[in-house]
Each structure stands twice: as structure tokens, then as C-alpha cells.
Amino acid sequence: MGEFRMPSLGADMEAGTLLLWKVQPGDRVKRGDIIAEVATDKGDIEIEVFEDGVVEQILVEPGSKVPVGTPLAVIRSDGEQVSVPAESAGPAAPQRALSEMGPPTELQPPPRPAADRRPRISPAARKLASDLGVDIDTVRGTGPGGAVQRADVERAAETKGALREVSERATDRTGMRRSIAAAMARSNREIPHYYLATSIDLSATLSWLETENEKRSIKERLLPAILMVKAVAKALGAVPELNGYWSEDRHQPQESIHIGFAVSLREGGLIAPAIHHADRKSLDELMEAMRGLIERTRAGRLRSSEMTDATITVTNLGDLGVEAVYGVINPPQLALVGFGKITDRPWAENGAVGVRPVVTATLAADHRATDGRQGAQFLEALKRHLQEPASL
Amino acid sequence: MKPVSSRGTRLPVGREHALHLLRTMLLIRRFEEKSAELYSAMKIRGFLHLYIGEEAVAVGVTEALEPQDAVVATYREHGHALARGIAAGPIMAEMYGKQEGCSRGRGGSMHIFDAKTRFYGGNAIVGGGLPLAVGLALAEKMRGTNAVACCFFGEGAVAEGEFHESMNLAQLWNLPVLFACENNLYAMGTALALSETVTDMTRKAAGYDVRAEAVDGMDVLAVEAAAKKAVAMVRAGNGPFLLELRTYRFRAHSMFDPELYRKKEEVEEWKKRDPIVTFAGRLEDEELLDDKGLQGIETSVGAEVTEAVAFAEAGTWEPSDQLERFVYSDRRE
Amino acid sequence: MEVTYREAMREAIREALQKDDRVFLMGEDVGRYGGCFAVSKGLLEEFGPERIRDTPLSEAAFVGAGIGAALGGMRPIVEIMTVNFSLLALDQIVNNAATYLHMSGGQFHVPLVIRMATGGGKQLAAQHSHSLEGWYAHIPGIKIVTPATIEDARGMLATALADPDPVLIFENSTLYNRKGQLAPEAGAVDIERARVHRAGRDVSLLTYGASLFKSLDAAAALAEEGIEAEVIDLRTLRPLDDETFIGSVTRTHRAVIVDEGWRSGSISAEISARLMEKAFYELDGPVERICSAEVPMPYASHLEQAALPNVERIVSTVRNVVRTHG
Asked: Which candidate, C34, C35, C40, C80, places its Cα nearest to that of C57?
């Protein structure tokens, strides 16, 4: 028996509004199926289920806004006994069943309604936590009945040295802006960033790309950005410490390499959905994945895992003419790689100056997890991979 | 007390004044008939209480008043408003609910107000207007004017404590109030004899030492004469006066009333004493009016009513964002 | 200058009578008896029976006459002995005083002042101990003021008389003997704003009338425990000065309302609702209310005291609201 819960689609997501169910009780679902849509501050998102089974019970009706973690539905795993008599409905049934049906050992209580679990948090505390970027679920309440009050949030924020940052909170009122503001303020507050940069001569790479693209239809052509993503993924193989999370006060490198690719939205704001297992995908697969991702991001139809799984972020502001990007890490990730515009620059090599297409790659990394030395190794590996496109 | 009547005597007023009285009564009659029609057509809503049959009372009493006098009326007050000189157009527009109405559409049929003629409503709580009239009279007395306050109320109101309190206070303080009790025999559907032990209003007044007289309310000349006498006494500082105006309402209490409480024969019997028909007949008998003259009055009154309806139709709705106006005054002293 | 609340009120009436010929006082026993709470004692001798009018026991008639006189250009002060008797004039207050301006489309305003004693605490039992000011505050078209301090007893009447609309002044009868300092030049005060009587950071005590002093006593006791209560005298129950009490709660994040009226459908319920509507995200805990027990007021002293808000209840309620279980 599993509970399908309102997923946390980002460190800054507190709640979501269930928009619609794509399944109903009795439907068979398998891992990866999209079974619901949820509206968040960042847009509407398709939510996938992470286990195989049968939908036993829908707990939250469309239109309800519930906090992250609230059970939305009960999924009975394959092989699990039917726990509630088929003809009964609703949470009252098991009690009736106790007296009327077989031995009680066969029965399990229904899931507790979400309301029971709702923490006691005062409205003022909730607002302050949101303003300060404090994760309210981590705050210990000291008010009546364990309620979280303003003072508790202030204490939690002080611990993180957050209070002085209040004035930095976003003034833009839109939810997206607020979410970004909260995440970025938290990042800036919590993560000791260090920055490294390197310039990479792309002459060979670009001519390789030109040749490659001649073999492809216009639609399938590879963009330089794809090479960069793939190169980042490869370079992470060499410096795995940069791939993963800083969470619960410790460094948690991840094996899988899911690259968050920053996509700016037409209406403002940005999302960095994940390209899963970027290191294992071919360039063409990556290109296709990225196209789909950008399309779905802008249509507001991202999958939940795409929203949460990124282990590092790549941002490319080259198309906007920027030379170099010194980014802010998207918590709880460990690093962010930025690429600027590929420009023709004077380039000295072997004692002669020529003009070469050059890109500046930067690394913003969490100093709690890695040091400059590892960062430098990463940039070196990145340069190597990017200059050997055939290896990508 | 036997009601005073002018019947059997020679006409005590001149022709011009007599025709004015007739025209005003006819204006009220035609205006209200039109109102009933417009109510059925759903142009007018809420409660609509018609005065038809009682016109001689409002016209006769109002004739006795001066412009500086204050008038307090009931929810059956179209007749009083018209007799007092409020233009038919703004009254009709008020019933339409238009902002050109005399109460800007905030009052409707039951709450006609007009500051220019000192017309203080339009009171829909039976008996509620009497203390107000006492207060208006108190103000006149304290300010040393010679204005009086005239309060119209039905015989149903005498069952209310406010009637008794007001009679007592007005007499106690010697205030210039004319209490005009329109006794049409029914408080909605309850006959006077079913609700009062003493059905002679003048005897009730006697209980407070208030001077009183009963008048035939279907006889406009008798009403006018009695009212003039009463107002003169009041204005002279002799305290209040109660006029009992014995009359009858020909129409139902309001538009939605099947009249289960009285017999058709009784209504028909009273209609023979129609104040307009009998007065017009009397003027014809005395050769002060002929068919052509009556037709001329009808035409003129009809035009005035048509014009009032046109005014109401052309009126505008106050924007809803003005809803909360007139709860407190905009101005301060 | 030390004066009683009663003397301050009398001085206010005297000044109004002196300044404006249109002003007169009318009510039961306001003249020869001197007022049932002796507020108007001596005024008959000074101003004569035309302006200090003893009325029959006819609340509907003399309140209605007050409305009529106001419509007729006078500035009457109508005294109703106690709020319970005002119910006999409810028709005049609610159906006439409150509606005339509106029904007439703005043509007729009613510059009337009605004063009445309110409140319990003197063992006068169920028919003489009501606090219905919050109930009257339900009615649009009238204004409800509740002078608690000597300054307000002295200053609210003049402002009420200058107001073009009907103003009801509720004088808590336990305050008449209360003494306080009054500046010799004291005069008219506004009847629009609530007043912060004591500043504090931990909780806002929102109150009016006689409960103001209970709340101030409670705040003093709480201060000794390190709890700083802000005490707000609402002063006017209609229209409510939202800005002031919401501003206070925005600073303290906690509100306790002390209201001598019954809890259900009370002014405290209205204030609580407005806090939810306008300051929900400022609240660090539920709004608490201390009201009179929901019984007709009993006669026996210990029962009456148990029914009314008192200092101990305010202190313990505030303590619970502010307390944290660190």
C-alpha cells in the first residue's frame, strides 16, 4: 500500500493545487505514468506515479490546494491483498467491516486523512517563513500545542543567518518571481559560492559540428549548446563531487547525472528542468530531449521528475550576447555551469596570434562540498571534452 | 361624534377653488389608476398602496396648510404628496426606482420625501410617524415660528403605543400638531370594530384632552372647512387637534390582496359616495361645471399623468457604485 | 483639575446648551430629579424647563420627538435612562433615525444625539444590566460612541452634536463616579479614531467602555510578568476604526478583545472577523475574546462578577495567548 503524495517539485514549493486526475479508483498504473496534473507557482505540471499498482482511493479532489507531502491518492501495490472490501467506499467502511466481516487481522485502517497531519502553523509564521525562505516543515513549534509561531521562524532564520536578508526578498508579486526569489535568496544566503572561469577555443568543435549537421535534416541539426551539455555530463564523470546535492547539512554526490537546463519563459522567469542521464545519451538523443523539454516547459507541461531531479544546472546566456555567466547555484545542487556567447577573439597559440571562436565557461560551486582544485579539474575536463567533439 | 358634512348647504367656496379641488382629486385618482396599471406591467414594484376613494381627505386637509408647515404621511401617501404640490413626474420616477425620483429611487412608493414642500415621508411603520410630527412641532414651537406639523395616519395606528404617547406629549407640551386620522375602517384586513373597543377616534383624543372633530371624509368641502378651523386653532397656540376623517378605500389594501375581509356590496355602497363623482355632480348641480368642463379637466389631468410616466420612463438608474451613499451625511457643520 | 466622569459629562451638556440655542436636553427625570445618574443635576435651574425637558415615560414618543425636532432644525440631546429602556424606542431609532437620510435620497438628515447608560456590575439584575452598544453598532445610519475616559466624557458630546447624523452615546454606569484629571481647556474630541492607551509589543487588548480600565489593570499586572500588552480604546463602535486596531495587531501579532456585551453576534465577533479579513497573515495565534457570560445578568453579586469580564480573566487569557512552550 502506498500513498501518492503531493510531490515537492522544488525546494521552494510549499503547496500545489490538484488540477485533474487522469485516473480513477480501480485503474491500473505503472511507474512513470502521468496520473494527475498539479498547478504550482511555476506553472501546471504533470505528476507521475513511482510505483506499479492499482489506484485504491482518491483522497484529494481537483481544485484543492494542499501542502507538499499531502497524500493525494492511495495506490495498492501489485501483489498486495485487497485491503478494503470492494463494495465499501470511504473511510467509514473498515469499522463496519470489523463487526460484519472476517477477522480483523485482514483489515488495515484507511490512510489518515490529510487534515490530521496538517501542522499547526500560525498565519503570521507561515508568511514570515515564506518571506525569509525558511522551510516551514523544518521549524520546531514551541507555541500552544506545538504550533509554529513567528518566534520559532525567527529563531530558525537566525540560525541560518537569514534575518538580515529580509530586505532582499523579491518585490515582484508573481508566484514564479517569489519562488525564484526565495530559492535564490536562500542560495545566496546558505551557499558559499566560489567561481572559476576558463576560455575555450571552439574552432575544431564548430567545424566538426558543421560537418555533422550536413548529414542531418534542418530539424535534427545539433546546436552548440548540446555539445556543452554533453561535455558537462562527461566532465562530471571525471569530477563526480560536483554532481549532486548539499542536503541535511552534508554533501550527497549522486551517481546519476541529470543536467538541469535553464529555460527562460516568455512571460518572464525561468525553469531548469532535468535532462535525465545526460551522460548516457547520444548527441542526437540529447538534442531531441532538449527540444521536448523546452517545448513542454513553455507549455507548462513538465513532468514532476523533470522538475526535481536535476543534479547540476547548465545555463547558457550566449544567445543574449553575454560573455560570461557567474550564476547562483540552484539549491540543493552543488554547482552551476555557465556558458557565454561564442565570439571571435584574438587567440595566441604556439607563439602566434590568430582569431578563433571562443566561449567562456564558468563554474559556480558550493565551497562546502568542493574546493577550487576540484572545480579547476572539472573545467579542465570540460574544455577537453568540448574540444574533442567526436568523443562526445 | 357625528361627522361634519357640507351636504345640503350652498357651496361655501368660489368656482375656481372648487374646480381646483376637483382637479387635484382627479389627478390623484388618475395617477393611481396608472400606477396600478404600471405595477401590473412590473414597471413599479415593492408594495403599492392605493388611496383611491380617500382623495377628499388629502386634498381637503392639505388645502388648510401653509408652505411653512411640515407634513408627515403614511405609506399610502401618493395622494398627500400630489396634493402637497410635489410634481407627478418625480413621484412616478420614485416608484420606478429612478434617480430622478423625489427620493432618488431609495424610497419607492412608500417613502416619498420632498424637502422643498417639507414633506417628511412616506412612513411604513404604522404609528411611527406620529412622534416625528410631535418633534417637528416641538422644533417650531421652540424656534418661535407659527408653523404647524400635520400628521396623517390611519385608524389602525391608534392601536399602537406611539399614538397614545404622541397624543399625550403633544397636549402636555401644547405643541402645534394636527393629527389627521384617516379612518377607512380597515387596518389592512382587520375591521376597526375587531381591533378597538372604542371606535370613535374623537373619544380617544378626549382621553388626552386633545380637541377633536369627526368629518365626512368623502366630502372635500367638509374636510377642507374642518381642517382650516383646526389648523387655525393649532396655529394660534392652542395645542394639538385631532381630525377624524371618515372615509373608505375602494381598492384593496395593496396590489396583492384578494379582499376576503369585506363584502363587495359594502364596497359598492361606499362607491356611491365617491368623493370625486359626488363633488363633480354637486358642481354640475350648481351649474359651475358641465360635461365639457369636466372633459377639459380629465384631458389636462390625463396629460399630466402621461407626462409623469414619460418622465419616469426617461429617468436613469443610479450607478450601483453609489449604493452606499446617504447612509451618513457627506457634509459636516 | 480633578473631576468625575459625571461632572465631565454635565459640563459638556452645559457648554452645549450655552453655545447653541438649538440644543436642548429631554428625557425622563432629567430636570427636577436631576437625572437618574445625576448627570443633569442643576441644569434645570440654570437653563429652565424649555431646554431641560422632563418627559413622560414614553420612550418611543420622546425619542421620535427628538428625531422630529432634529429634522425641524433643533439639536436635541435625548437622554434615555438606561439602554434597556431604549428598546421601547427601537422603532424610532432603527426605523427612523437610521433611515431618514437614505430613504429621502439625502434630503433629510437627523442631527440627533441620544445618550444612555449601559453596562452591568451594580447588582441591577437582568433588565438593567445590558450592554447593547455592540448590538446597536449593527445598524448603518447611526454612529455609536462609548466614552470611557474623563476626556471623552467631556469631549465627545460636542462632536456628536456637530455631526449631521444621529449619534448614540453609551455611558457605562460604573464610570460616573470615576475620577480623573481634566485639563481646564479640555473640549471637543474626535469620535472617529480608536486610541492606543498603553503601548506594548506582545499582544493587543482591544476594548471600550468600562472594560478599558480592567484591561489597563490587566496590562499592568502582565507587565510584571514581562508581557507587554498594548491597550486600545476603540471609543467608537460604529464606524469602527479598523486602521488603528489592525495597525496594533500588525505590531503585536496577537489580539484579545474585551467586550462587556454577550459573545454571540457581538462587536467582538465583528472585530475578530475584521482581523481575519484584513490581518490574517499578521496573526500568530487565534484571536481570543473575553465577553460577558451568555446569561441574563443575575442579581447575586458573586454571580454577576462571574458573568462580567474581569482583570483576572484578562490576565490569564493573555498569558495563554502569549505563552510559548519553549
From this structure: C80
The residue of chain C with its CA nearest to that of A148 is C284
Q: Is A142 on the interface with C (CB under 8 A)?
A: yes
- Distance (Å, rounded) from C-alpha C106 to C-alpha B274? 38
Q: Three-state secondary structure along chain A?
A: CEEEECCCCCCCCCEEEEEEECCCCCCEECCCCEEEEEEECCEEEEEECCCCEEEEEECCCCCCEEECCCEEEEEEECCCCCCCCCCCCCCCHHHHHHHHCCCHHHCCCCCCCHHHHCCCECHHHHHHHHHHCCCHHHCCCCCHHHCECHHHHHHHHHHCCCHHHHHHCCCCCCHHHHHHHHHHHHHHHHCCEEEEEEEEECHHHHHHHHHHHHCCCHHHCCCHHHHHHHHHHHHHHHCHHHCEEEECCEEEECCCCCEEECEECCCCCEECCEECCHHHCCHHHHHHHHHHHHHHHHHCCEEHHHHHCCCEEEEECHHHCCCCCCCCCCCCECEEEEECCCEEEEEEECCEEEEEEEEEEEEEEECCCCCHHHHHHHHHHHHHHHHCHHHC
C-chain CB neighbours of A178 within 8 Å are none
Model ipTM value = 0.93
Which residues does B161 contact at the CB level (< 8 Å), separation at least 6?
A: B127, C60
Q: Phi, psi (5° rounding) for residue C179?
A: -105, 150
State yes or no: cis peptide before A91, omega within 30 of 0: no
For A201-252, how does the pLDDT look when each residue is reduced to its tens digit (9 = 90+)? 998 899 898 888 888 888 788 888 889 999 999 999 989 999 998 887 888 8
Mean pLDDT to the nearest integer, A290-306: 77
Q: Is C128 a catalytic residue?
A: yes
- Which of B191, B199, B189 minimizes the C-alpha distance to B158? B199
DSSP 3-state of C146: coil
Chains that touch C (3 or more CB pairs under 8 A): A, B
- Please state the domain extents for chain C: 2-181, 195-324
Find, in chain B, the residue whose alpha carbon is nearest to that of C163: B332
Does the beta-carbon distance from A142 to C280 stay under 8 Å? Answer: no
pLDDT digits (tens, 9 = 90+) for C269-305: 999 999 999 999 999 999 999 999 999 999 999 999 9
CB C129 within 8 A of CB C121: yes
Decide the pairing of beta strands C113-118 and C143-145.
Answer: unpaired
Domain spanning C195-324: which CATH class is it, in words?
A: alpha beta
Q: How many residues are there in chain C? A: 326
Selecting from 3.40.50.2300, 3.40.50.620, 3.20.20.190, 3.40.50.970, what CATH number does the domain B15-309 have?
3.40.50.970
CA distances from A31 to A7, A93, B265 (A): 15, 29, 89
Q: What angle do CA B123, B128, B129 make, to 5 degrees?
A: 60
- The DSSP symbol for C136 reads H
Cα separation, C229 vs C322, whole angstroms:
10
Cell numbers for C261? 456585551
Cell numbers representing residue A264 in the block: 527562460
CA distance A29 to A35: 8
- The CATH number corresponding to C2-181 among 3.30.200.20, 3.40.50.1220, 3.90.180.10, 3.40.50.970 equals 3.40.50.970
Helix (H, G, I), strand (E, B) or coil at C201: coil
Residue of chain A minimizing CA distance to C276: A123
Q: Name the pLDDT band for B217 (thresholds 50, 70, 90).
A: very high
Beta strands (DSSP E) in chain B are 70-74, 119-123, 149-154, 177-183, 186-187, 190-191, 211-216, 241-246
Output DSSP code: residue C95.
I
Spot the catalytic one: C59, C171, C270, C288.
C59
Whole-model pTM: value is 0.68
Answer yes or no: same fold for C2-181 and C195-324.
Answer: yes
